[in-house]
Amino acid sequence: MFQPARITIVSSDIQLVSHLQIRLHSKGYQASGMHCIDSVLGAFYSDPPDLLLIDLSANMECGTKIVSTLRSDSFFSVIPILGLIATVDNDCLNWDSCPLDDFISLPLDYNELFSRINLSFSRMKRIFDNNPLTRLPGNTSIQRAIEGAMGEPVSVCYVDINHFKPYNDEYGFSHGDEVIRMTARIMFNAVRDSGGGFCGHIGGDDFVCIVPNVCAEVVCQTIIKHFDLIVLDLFDEETKKRGYYPGSNRKGEKEDVPLLSVSIAVVPMDMPKLLHAAKVAEVAAELKKMAKDSNGSRYVVDHRRN
């Protein structure tokens, strides 16, 4: 089913927000308004929109801080941000400190507004390789991030959901998609809370994050702790007590399928043996296999220096 794009409007001008909501609704968008700028970041972390309209005319300093904070976050960096500014402010904006995708002068010309919104969505589709389900950067960005991490004191953590395919087959794609989104958010929050890093979605139930070596194990422990806790809500009490449910393996044969868990392969990037990005994937595949050999969630760190 087609889902209309969701647009969040941030402005202390209640009347402006109300008019924008009405106009955007008339064009088929879902529009929500926020009058308190201080609560914007918290709202984004809990339920990010597809596009942000932010009024910079009333409080340029606070609005600029919000824009720069969102832009510095790998999860939110791809969300288009359009600034509403007073005409006299056009020449005063520092685009480096306020990295908008576009701006619209006040008072609004709504035909121009709708055109710029449409162009922003089109531009995002052309430029970014982000996964449409999780909004995390995809393979092109992941490859660049791994290459940039070569030789640095950071770890690439490959996160994989165990027993995802039989769960997806048994419970349906909508439930499977929710598990994917849930895992992405858990990983993203763990990385953010550790001090920041890169998060990416390879595809399907495979993810990558890159964090400083000193934070890697804590991030893995946090991902596992939160995943194992939240995943229990996906099953009924009887299934949780058993620890498995009836399903089918990849050959279509009936078997008891364990509850979902995660395996994480941790590859420190400052090891001499890592001469190219392909070697990183090779080491990760070996570690992930070791992690999957045990029941439940587990992470494995490569401590071998050679």
Helix content: 40-55%
Estimated share of beta-strand residues: 15-25%
CATH architecture field of the largest domain: 2-Layer Sandwich
CATH topology of the largest domain: Alpha-Beta Plaits
Q: N-to-C SSE series?
A: EHEHEHEEHHEHHEEHHEEEHE
Tell me the distance between the termini.
Answer: 51 Å
Main beta sheet strand tally, sense and closure? 5 strands, parallel
Spatial order of strands in the largest sheet: 2-1-3-4-5
Give the low-pLDDT segments. Answer: none
Number of domains: 2
Indicate the CATH class of the largest domain: Alpha Beta
Structural class: alpha/beta
Shape: globular
Descriptive overview:
There is one protein chain. This protein has 306 residues and is of the alpha/beta class. It has 2 domains: 6-126, Response regulator (Rossmann fold); 139-301, Reverse transcriptase/Diguanylate cyclase domain (Alpha-Beta Plaits, 2-Layer Sandwich). It has 10 helices and 12 strands. The chain has helices at 14-26, 40-46, 60-71, 110-127, 139-149, 164-171, 173-193, 213-230, 237-242, 277-292, and strands at residues 6-10, 30-34, 51-55, 81-86, 102-106, 154-162, 198-203, 206-212, 244-248, 254-258, 261-268, 298-301. The strands form 3 sheets. A 5-stranded parallel beta sheet has the order 2-1-3-4-5, sandwiched between helices. Strand 3 (51-55), helix 3 (60-71) and strand 4 (81-86) form a beta-alpha-beta unit. The protein is globular and about 60 Å long. The chain starts with 5 loop residues before the first strand and ends in a 5-residue tail after the last strand. The model has no long low-confidence stretch (mean pLDDT 89).
